């Protein structure tokens, strides 16, 4: 395993559409995934996409703690009706998705702070769909299908965007919120986890 260098905004690998993976269960993919997970842990990121480590392939990894999702969704979406069944979001396990697909569930969007390991030190407010359904293959070749809400949905949209060459500033409607995290208040800083 190895900690990989992370590409920063401006490098062409972050701006291109990544290629589908022919065999999600190959040894090459397995080794890349291990390196991505080690890199993500070292960088204390909550998500990482293969193009961020200079590999233009459709692979993402992410993790969302239940405590984090509760904190975020409480701050961002207070007052919105809750489905009731998942009022206490549980941890989203460390997930690796290969060749993922995503579709919004409804048209509702919400603003929230985002940061990215490829734009170190910066954060901005980004509109994202509040609910999505996504799917993809695990490195074992299993099909994963999930519905995601709130912060979980935000993380997935951010990571999947990396596979299409899109960085979060391209999703922002108001660039005046693009900020150095060191200049933000503690609450915004806590929300702007790097992905
Ligand atoms: Ni990112």
Give a written overview of the molecule:
It is a single chain. 25% of the residues lie in helices and 27% in strands. It contains 4 helices and 8 strands, in the order αββαβββββαβα. It has helices spanning 27-43, 66-76, 150-163, 186-191; strands at residues 47-49, 59-64, 92-104, 109-114, 122-129, 131-137, 143-149, 179-180. Strands 1-2-3-6-7 form a 5-stranded antiparallel beta sheet, sandwiched between helices. The protein has a 3-stranded antiparallel beta sheet with strand order 4-5-8. β4 (109-114) and β5 (122-129) form a beta hairpin. The structure holds nickel (II) ion. Nickel (II) ion binds at residues 116-118, 158, 162, 195.
- Report the helical percentage: 10-25%
Query: Which ligands accompany this protein?
Result: nickel (II) ion
Provide mean pLDDT, rounded.
Answer: 90
| Total number of distinct structural domains | 1
Number of strands: 8
CATH superfamily: Peptide deformylase
Query: How would you sum up the major sheet?
Result: 5 strands, antiparallel
Helices and strands, in N-to-C order? HEEHEEEEEHEH
What count of helical segments does DSSP give? 4
Can you tell me the CATH architecture?
Alpha-Beta Complex
Which radius of gyration do the C-alpha atoms yield? Answer: 16 Å
């Amino acid at each position: 395993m190895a900690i990989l260098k992370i590409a920063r905004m401006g490098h062409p690998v972050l701006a291109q559409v990544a290629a589908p993976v022919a065999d999600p269960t190959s040894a090459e993919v397995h080794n890349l995934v291990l390196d991505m997970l080690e890199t993500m842990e070292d960088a204390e990121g909550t998500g990482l996409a293969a193009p961020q480590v200079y590999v233009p392939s459709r692979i993402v990894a992410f993790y969302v703690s239940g405590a984090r999702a509760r904190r975020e969704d409480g701050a961002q979406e207070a007052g919105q009706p809750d489905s009731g069944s998942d009022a206490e979001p549980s941890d989203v396990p460390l997930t690796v998705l290969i060749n993922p697909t995503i579709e919004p569930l409804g048209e509702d969007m919400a603003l929230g702070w985002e940061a990215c390991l490829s734009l170190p030190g910066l954060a901005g407010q980004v509109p994202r769909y509040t609910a999505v359904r996504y799917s993809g293959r695990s490195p074992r070749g299993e099909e994963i299908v999930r519905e995601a809400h709130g912060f979980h949905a935000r993380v997935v949209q951010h990571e999947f965007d990396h596979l299409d060459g899109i960085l979060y500033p391209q999703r922002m409607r108001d660039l005046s919120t693009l900020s150095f995290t060191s200049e933000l208040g503690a609450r915004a800083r806590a929300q702007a986890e790097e992905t």
